[in-house]
Write a structure and sequence with these properties.
The complex is a heterodimer of chains A (218) and B (836). With 218 residues, chain A is an alpha/beta fold. Chain A has seven helices and ten strands. Chain A has helices spanning 47-54, 77-87, 105-115, 124-127, 143-156, 173-188, 200-205, and strands at 3-16, 19-32, 36-40, 62-67, 70-71, 88-91, 161-165, 193-196, 208-213, 216-217. Chain A has a six-stranded mixed sheet, sandwiched between helices. The two termini of chain A are 23 Å apart. With 836 residues, chain B is of the alpha+beta class. Chain B has an eight-stranded mixed sheet, with helices on both faces. The longest helix of chain B has 43 residues, at 264-306. The mean pLDDT of chain B is 84. The chains are: A alpha/beta (218), B alpha+beta (836). At the A-B interface, helix 2 and helix 3 of A face helix 10 of B. The complex binds adenosine-5'-triphosphate and magnesium ion. Magnesium ion binds next to helix 1 of chain A.
Chain lengths: 218, 836
């Protein structure tokens, strides 16, 4: 079992008017190429920051990120963009942030596939339980449906890994359950998933749990 | 194109306020760019039309004015000129030759002085009042009448008289305007100094009579309507002149046939007027375009903010900042282009309102459209660039500091202020001491008023920002409406200072532009009026001035007779109080005062003009002692000097008054025709239209007229951006307003606080803008005066109306803004707002 993503001694500092804030420090974790990895920890422990670094959305201040064993975090912005396009799907915390609100559900799937240079496959809507909702506009979908559509979009991009930031935190129990179902579908299709969450049901689902505290792996 | 980009155009339309902002920005940019081009072309052509109107149409091309050419050479000049003109493509040649004034001997009698001459096509352009056969001599009525000449033989040397024509009088028809000295007798010239011409049927007949002939060769051309047509004509005329000179030199005629090009100087003047306008309009155009482009940048920044979630999503999926910038372009460019097209169309069709009416060169609109296209491309680049840079900063380089604070503190007004100081210095320097020459307009000095307005607008905006920063310490909860207004302003300080900047710029340029524009027009009218004394002035015989002879009723109804003594420092103008108002030009601003004083004249009373000494027994050599009854700064007929106005009746016996003028409020043609009909001799007719070279006045008036219209446009932009900013914050305003009223704030206090908020912005804009505009206009006006040696000096026109209108519009904007803000509060339900 190889690691699709790995962080080696990663640290991130943010400049603030009051001086640099260290969001995470000395984090060494790996995301295996199958199953669900959960980064768990209390609020402010640096889960989201770690996820952004792993998604190559942000460069770490210290340490390196490896993608399939190669060090990528030091590459140029242009190369990072290409890697993001082809290999990584990142899901933000708020459902609406993962979708293009002016498009329909189907169009969102098509747009996601196109962004990664993949042929769009609208069958995927059925896989996440959104059968027959292709023509719905995004605002007409519930939060859970939006989050499942976001997962569907991630799937449509055929990434090497999906990173999801608290996919259930803004949902009620029922909707959260449906999203977890969809997460399992992803894993069943062989896509490794890394989730940042302190939701116990997500942690239950995990193949591996990394606990974080105050920006460090606990 | 990928999906989110493909649907961008439609997506862009879904945000109403962005569509409005983009459309208005496009309109502003296109209007400013297109109007600058159109205004420059139009002023150039208007200046040209003015010059052409003052030039004899026969003298537009090169011409030959030979004096005392030997009569045996005249025919060769004629032949050479015709040949060269044909070669150079001038279709028509008008050749004329005149003897000196002579007295012909007819039998045992001598005729009065007359010239004998020939001119191509002369006969069809004369009005025969007796006879009409074209094969004989045509004398004018006056010499024929005085010399008792009738139709019939004149002697052996000269063909018999076959017609007598109506005297040619000024203003003559265009055909004769180049020949005035030869065909119109000047009664001022002594015997033999000037005479009318008796026309003979052929040049050969004339050549036989005189030893030496004055020669006039003209090459009539179509009047140029545009500067480019005029330049083309000038080039053709140059070639004609060269060819003529060469030909005359080859034939040894140079001494008798000097070639002149009288249109060169007027054309250069017109071209200079255009250059002045361009040089002057350019800075403001650049500033306005800059404001527009900054607006485009702000639009892009606002778009990034509004679409941040989508941008982050696309960026996380691997889109480059440039691709995201392109998305901004795709979403906003549609309304921008629509606005630009509207702006171009508006600029074209509103042209008569902001520029002098003149013909446009063919292709001018295309040029304007190309310039607009260029500006739109710039705007597109700024839009894409700003959005790309913003996304780059937002996602790729978040840790780099934004613009260093130091850079933001550097006042951009400083270099402008330095430029303003230098421009002000050259403005003060450009005042000529005295003399009759128009000081050359210095475009850099002309820029002074606008530069000052720019500096003050910048300073006002900076002060406003500082005050708002400082206002965080302000604590006036005892006056909740004030505290609320200040807090809200401080929260929206960027928008507020932006509105102040553009607003002061707008109101200031509007004030300066319209003041100077009106002042120049007033100055031209009053200087011309005071110089001539009336719309038309002609010198007439003393018998009218001494009331020995009455004027014909038709003339008297619109005229008054005035005696003028020009004694340098102490001028005298003797008026007839009863008829003065019929004919004299009276400054509308001083009408009552002047007519009141004039009506008191008589019995030695006098009005002291231009600071002449006042007193009860002023003795002026040759006149009875005068006592002054009042003072006036200027008086018609006294454009240069100080002096006294008296009643004509006081001077009837004074032989000192030796020139009398008829001042008429009617145009010259009417007056001269009426005088001719009554057989009243007259000389030296003058009109206000021709009194001054108006071009320098027009140049300044046109430029400032354009400035004013750009100022008006900027004012609309400032008002619109205030309203849009209020509209954009409506939801927040509604939420906080609704909450505040729930918590016990009285609705009245809320309304007052909004009115105070917008009122403070409007008041500072109006106060700073109007003050700087009027002050700088008052300072510049005397120095921009193109004819400072003529009274009255240009001064700031009455600005009360302007201020009132500005305040009224300001109040209206404040009221509308307040209504927009408060309306949201009343209809808002707090619960909904909190959830939204
Ligand atoms: N852009 C930023 N600028 C400054 N500080 C930041 C920034 N982003 C995160 N931080 C800080 O880094 C720390 C970790 O934040 P992060 O969002 O990764 O935590 P989290 O575990 O995801 O918390 P939550 O469960 O609330 O989402 C926090 O203390 C936060 O204040
Ligand atoms: Mg988080």
């Amino acid at each position: 079992m190889a690691d699709v993503l790995a962080a080696q001694g990663v640290g991130v500092d943010y400049p603030t008017p009051a001086g640099a804030v260290t969001a995470i420090d000395g984090v060494t974790v790996a995301v295996p190429d199958q199953g669900i990895t959960v980064f768990a920890g209390p609020s402010g422990s640096g889960k989201s920051t770690l996820l952004r670094v792993l998604a190559l959305v942000e460069r770490p201040t210290r340490g390196v990120v490896e993608l399939s064993g190669e060090t990528v975090s030091t590459r140029s912005h242009r190369q990072l963009r290409a890697l993001r396009r082809q290999t990584i799907a990142l899901m933000f915390q708020s459902p609406l942030e993962n979708l293009l609100p002016e498009l329909t559900a189907a169009q969102n799937v098509i747009a996601a596939a196109q962004s990664a240079g993949q042929a769009p496959d609208l069958e995927l809507l059925g896989v996440v339980g959104l059968d027959g909702m292709g023509d719905y506009r995004v605002p007409a979908l519930s939060g859970g449906q939006q989050q499942r559509l976001a997962l569907c979009c991630a799937l449509a991009r055929d990434p090497k890994v999906v990173l999801a930031d608290e996919p259930t935190s803004q949902l009620d129990d029922t909707s959260a359950g449906l999203v977890l179902e969809s997460l399992k579908v992803l894993v069943d299709r062989g896509v490794p998933v890394a989730v940042a969450s302190h939701d116990d049901r997500v942690i239950e689902l995990a193949d591996r749990v990394v606990r974080m505290r105050s920006g460090r792996v606990a | 194109m990928q999906l989110p980009w493909r649907t961008s155009a439609r997506t862009g339309l879904s945000s109403g306020s962005s569509v409005v902002v983009a459309t208005v920005t496009g309109l502003l940019l296109a209007f400013v760019a297109a109007s600058a081009v159109l205004c420059a072309v139009s002023t150039g052509n208007a200046a040209l039309s003015y010059q052409v109107g003052r030039t004899c149409p026969q003298s537009l091309a090169a011409s030959v004015n030979g004096l005392a050419a030997p009569s045996d050479q005249v025919a060769r000049i004629d032949q050479d000129a015709r040949e060269v003109a044909r070669q150079q493509g001038f279709p028509q040649t008008l050749f004329g030759a005149y003897t000196q004034p002579t007295r012909l001997v007819v039998g045992d009698q001598q005729t009065p002085y007359l010239r004998v001459g020939y001119r191509d096509d002369a006969i069809p352009n004369l009005h025969a009042i007796q006879g009409g056969a074209t094969n004989g001599t045509w004398p004018a009525r006056t010499p024929a009448h005085d010399g008792h000449l009738g139709l019939g033989p004149l002697g052996s040397e000269i063909p018999p008289v076959t017609a007598i024509y109506q005297d040619l009088t000024e203003p003559v028809a265009p055909f004769w305007c180049s020949e005035v000295t030869s065909v119109v007798a000047n009664p001022l010239a002594g015997d033999g100094g000037s005479a009318t011409t008796a026309f003979l049927p052929s040049l050969a007949d004339v050549a036989r009579l005189g030893e030496r002939l004055d020669v006039s060769v003209r090459f009539p051309v179509a009047t140029p309507n545009t500067l480019s047509e005029a330049r083309e004509l000038a080039a053709r005329s140059d070639r004609l002149a060269d060819a003529l000179r060469k030909k005359f030199a080859a034939d040894g005629l140079t001494a008798y046939a000097p070639v002149r090009q009288s249109f060169v100087a007027p054309l250069a003047e017109a071209a200079k007027a255009q250059n002045n306008v361009i040089a002057f309009v350019l800075p403001l155009t650049a500033i306005s375009l800059l404001v527009g482009l900054v607006g485009v940048g702000a639009m892009a920044a606002q778009w990034c903010q509004r679409r941040q979630a989508v941008l982050r999503l696309l960026w996380a999926r691997g889109s480059s900042p440039l691709a995201l910038g392109a998305k901004a372009l795709l979403e906003l460019v549609g309304p921008l282009v629509v606005g630009a097209v509207v702006g171009l169309v508006v600029a074209r069709f509103a042209l008569p309102w902001y520029a002098p009416v003149a013909e446009l060169d063919p292709g001018t609109t295309t040029w304007a459209a190309l310039v607009v296209l260029g500006v739109v491309l710039c705007a597109a680049a700024v839009l894409t660039g700003t959005a790309a840079l913003r996304t780059h900063r937002m996602f790729q380089a978040p840790r780099r500091r934004r613009i260093p604070r130091v850079l933001r503190l550097i006042p951009f007004e400083l270099p402008v202020a330095v430029a303003a100081v230098f421009s002000g210095l050259s403005l003060t320097r450009s005042v000529p001491s005295t003399g009759g020459a128009t000081p050359p307009l210095d475009a850099f000095a002309l820029a002074f008023p606008v530069l000052v307005v720019v500096v003050i607008a910048g300073v006002a905006a900076r002060l406003g920002r500082l005050l708002l920063v400082w206002s965080h310490r302000l604590n006036v909860w005892s006056l909740p409406s004030v505290q609320l207004a200040v807090r809200r302003l401080a929260a929206a300080s960027t928008a507020a200072t932006g509105v102040v900047l553009v607003g002061v710029l707008a109101v200031g340029t509007l004030a300066v532009g319209s003041s100077v524009n009106h002042a120049e027009q007033n100055a031209l009218a009053s200087k011309s009026g005071n110089k001539i004394g009336a719309t038309t002035s002609v010198q007439i015989s003393t018998s009218f001035g001494q009331s020995k002879e009455p004027l014909p009723a038709a003339v008297a109804a619109h005229g008054t007779v005035v005696g003028v003594v020009d004694r340098g420092v102490s001028n005298m103008v003797a008026v007839d109080p009863a008829t003065f108002a019929n004919g004299a030009w009276i400054d509308p601003d001083r009408r009552t005062e002047m007519l009141d004083l004039v009506s008191q004249l008589g019995h030695g009373a006098a009005i002291a003009v231009g600071g002449a000494k006042i007193g009860s027994s002023i003795s002026i050599p040759g006149f009875a002692p005068l006592h002054t009854i009042g003072q006036l700064p200027v008086f018609p007929g006294m454009p240069y000097n100080i002096g006294y106005v008296t009643a004509r009746s006081d001077n009837t016996t004074a032989s000192e008054v030796n020139s009398f003028f008829l001042w008429s409020s009617q145009d010259s043609t009417t007056v001269l025709n009426q005088l001719a009909a009554a057989h009243i001799d007259h000389i030296r007719y003058q009109t206000t239209d021709m009194a001054l070279d108006a071009l320098p006045f027009y140049t300044v008036a046109w430029t400032f007229g354009y400035i004013a219209s750009v100022g008006a446009l900027l004012a609309v932009i400032a008002a619109a951006s205030l309203l849009l900013a209020v509209g954009a914050r409506r939801k927040q305003t509604a939420l906080s307003g609704a909450l505040a009223t729930r918590m016990g704030l009285r609705p009245k206090t809320l309304v007052v606080s909004h009115l105070l908020e917008f009122g403070a912005v409007a008041a500072s804009v109006l106060a700073a803008g109007v003050t700087v505009g009027l002050v700088v206009a008052a300072f510049s006006l005397p120095r921009l005066d193109p004819a400072p040696w003529l009274r009255p000096v240009s001064v700031l026109p009455d600005s009360v109306m302007f201020v009132l209108v500005a305040v009224a519009i300001g109040l209206a904007v404040v009221a509308v803004a307040g209504w927009i803000a408060v309306r949201g509060v009343r209809t808002a339900r707090v619960g909904e707002l909190i959830r939204g």
